[in-house]
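Ticket #4471: structure output looks truncated?

Reporter: J.K.
Steps to reproduce: submitted the chain below (543 residues) through the standard prediction queue, then opened the result file.
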Amino acid sequence: MALALGLLACDDSQGQRRGAGDCPPAGCPEPLQCAAGLCVSDETPTAIYDLRIQPPTDSALSPVEVEGLVFSEGATLSLATALPVPARVAFVGQAVSPAGLPLAARASARPNRGITVRPQVVTSEALTNPGNPGFRLDLAPWWPTPDGGARQINYRLLIEPAGLPPYRVDVLLVDPDLPVARFALPETNPAALPTIRGVVVVSEANPTPLRGLTVVALDSAGRSVGTVATTDESGAFTIALWPDEAPRALTVRVSSDDDARPLPVVRVPVDVPGGGAPEPLTVQMGTLGSLFEIVGRVGDVSRPVSGATVRLSAPVGDGEYAVTTRTDDAGRFAAQVFPGEYVVDVVPPLDPDLPLRLTRRSASLGPNAPPVLVAPLTRSQVFGAVLDPGGEPLGGATVTATLIEARYGDPRLIRPGEAPPSRIVTGVVNPNGAFDLALDPGRHRLLVQPPPERGLPAFSVEVDFSGESGRPADVGTLRAPAAAAIAVRLATEAGAPLAGAAVEAWRRDTVPQRLAHGVTDSQGEVVLAVPASDPTAAADAGP
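Returned output as attached by the reporter:
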């Protein structure tokens, strides 16, 4: 891969630049050199990057990704030619019956490859043109390659015809010359499809049918694979599936969508034999008890916590019951629950004047239970220092902490693999290089963004602390790495510069992370600063 960016000399001691616009205003610390406005080293980065490109919103061009950027020598990487960005192609499709009759259907498509975080999903409502129904998706027919070529991209297509199971196409290639793509469905008569049938009742001892509940069949990935059913007056439901000669292990999920009649969510495993249907099911809600109102407060009378999210969840009957509410200005909340042993989660707002932590506790709830009182502790003070590659304080940098795994006082309440609530806290490094943040106990990803004028890249480290001692946690000294420069030039298919496009650089050889972003100028050019090496790892923050 060609390296077109040169390393231009500058007098770092005086902050003077030799070569217009090629050094940061403050110069670069020794032994770094200046290139493209960045402070780079002579190291060759080993990380692999992908680019995500979003053309201006008023453009007819398509969002795309460029995969597998690798530095071959030195810390500057300039692509050999401009990357072409394709126009969106109108992909028109039809789901057709075995007799060739087109059906109205909703559809969505997502690339089979690329950055997994926030994948680019394109959706379409059904086109109900009389006599010619179908769907339309505006898709990128190809993605650019690092050498300026094109790689045809394939998609996963989900077609949702009305009254039929969702139909999946695992590999879809967009052909701009094909006026209409037709997808032959195995069957369109619901009566001819294999089914999962059953009834939903209160319990074996109380076989009262439950009507108006939503019933779906899910595969091991949690995707719906059949029609969505609603129980009738007798509690009966029928889910239609596509024929399959192979046996399938599915899960039937029963839930209530009626806020006036909350019920637990019940999941029942079902083995569907190849080429056939399982025996009819009897799904029981189990012994629930009677709904009653529980009240509670977050904080105390003198310092209530308003706007906190409170979620109560418990195994109830044969399923799990969960309800979410919020506290009012007096810190009070109320919820309709069944008797049971609940986990109470409280998510206080991220108020800098009242920095309270996530709180999880257990509670035995019944009609005569006392009010639920939750007094969250304050978040832990986490402090550290950020230095530039030369060891000088990196004042003005921002430090953003994102919670990726929560810790609670009672470890028995921690659920492995559980995604935490969104908790993002940002602070600014002072002129002495110090920062402090009020964080929830747990594992966090710290993203450090140096001031733009310093010519250094954003970088991230992970820190983990329990918060049990209540003492401040020291994450140590974080030393910013030198920059590596990725110079990108974008163009339309006709070769005209593409200005105003947002370009992100994502590291892909670790957990996918967005480490740089910028917007192309009038010439379609942008330089992205990424770390030339992994930053100094933070010390374990301790308790």
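Triage note (M.O.): checked the attachment and the full token line is present. The first strand starts at residue 10 and ends at 11.
Status: closed, working as intended.
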